[in-house]
Amino acid sequence: MKSRFKGLNLHLLVLCLFLVGLIALPACGGSSDNGKTVIRVAYQQFGPPPYYEQEWWTRVKQQVEAANPKIELQLQPIIADEGSYYTKLALQLRSNNPPDIVREDSFLISSDVTAGYLTPLDDYINSWPDYKQQWFPSMQKITTFNNKNYGIMDGTDVRGIWYNKDIFQKAGLPTDWQPKTWADILTAARAVKAKVPGVVPMNLYSGIPMDEASTMQGFEMLLYGTKDPLYNYDTNKWIASSKGFQDALDFVKQVYSSSSLLGPTNDIALNTQAGNTIAQQLMPQGKLAIDIDGSWLPGSWQKGGAAEWPAWQKTLGVAKMPTQNGQDPQYVTLSGGWAYSISANSKHKSDAFNIIKTAFNKDNLAFYDVKASQITPRKDVADVADYKNLPLSDFFTGLVAVTQFRPGFPAYPKISVEIDRAMQNVMQGQSSSDAMNAFYNAVKSIAGDDKVEKRG
């Protein structure tokens, strides 16, 4: 009797799995009941509306389906915050039926390529003249891994120097300020300290609590203005000890010197909320003179932002971050941003790329970049009237030509933490040479002795 019920249960289980498969089939197959080819696009959606990705792809869906009656474009927003989005997307990408088109953080493309999730796009790109002609070279390079391209950037960000013109005027500094060297920045900060009491002279994100903001907005904006980057693409090794690295730490040390403090006090600087304190309190309140920070800050000050500040455009100036001694290319910035890629397991790669071409044509990408206040990766979008009307669009788009980006290798997140640790160590009194030596040893343990090099 037990064996009969055991067999019956097994048959019921198989039948249930079969029925579940039938129910799920339209969501994971390559065609719908009406015989159309189904292409699915996945992207993040989180928080209250408006949802600019959804608006953009709804527009694209209408165009694609009108021009291609045998194509059905299904929009599949992943409802998740940023960290959860990565997790949910990875689960979909490793399945046998992933979305065809996926939105990727450009920084994580190399990890997803290494995991086998993404399709190289070079063969498709070579037959699409717009890409080579219109995307800034830096925006093509940021999605390239092992000499193959895996994504098309939909927008980017850059970093520069924000400064308070009212404070500068009180300090006897020019209100059209453009430093030519690191020394010029420190000189301006010291002038503010001497002549404008009650004001923080400058902010440079530093230390472990601010995580990647310390690394990218802080340290790498310095390091990439020297002759020594973080990674040597010719030798495929991390440059974990160099003059440029030590010079960058020395700059941090000068900003946070206890005897002549130019930066925020530790209760602000070494706090996970430092970014909010800077952008939503110190800057709108006129209590910070100089801030090395991102192009996205005005989002907090615009109507409906976290710290509405109608006077920000009148009060603040922006300047390019100079290289250490003004050497070519004279200025530096770093970029991140998002791209769209094609899943390695997509059964309709050619159709998927044709849809990407439609989504990323001049008019459609301009629609998205203006809606989302993105810095465009596409040169001709920069000339669209609505885009040019965005605050500081010309200034920030101009920085894309000299932008750098983080080495997108799996070891980077751990190495980034060690950069933050080295910064925090010099903030708290350690010598730059000792902090760099500790960093060098840490990188060897993370990446392996054969993946690390020193420069004199």
Short description:
Helices cover 45% and strands 17% of the residues. The termini are far apart. It is of the alpha/beta class.
Overview of the molecule:
This protein has 456 residues and is α/β, with parallel strands linked by helices. The chain folds into two domains: 27-157 and 336-404, Periplasmic binding protein-like II (D-Maltodextrin-Binding Protein, domain 2, 3-Layer(aba) Sandwich), CATH 3.40.190; 159-334 and 411-454, D-Maltodextrin-Binding Protein, domain 2 (3-Layer(aba) Sandwich), CATH 3.40.190.10. The protein is built from 21 helices and 17 strands. Strands 2-1-3-15-6 form a five-stranded mixed beta sheet. A four-stranded mixed beta sheet has the order 8-11-7-12. Strands 9-10-17 form a three-stranded mixed beta sheet. A hairpin with an 8-residue loop joins strand 13 (321-322) and strand 14 (331-334). Helix 10 (211-223) crosses helix 11 (243-255) and helix 20 packs antiparallel against helix 21 (432-447). The longest helix has 27 residues, at 2-28. It comes from Ktedonobacter racemifer DSM 44963. This is Extracellular solute-binding protein family 1.
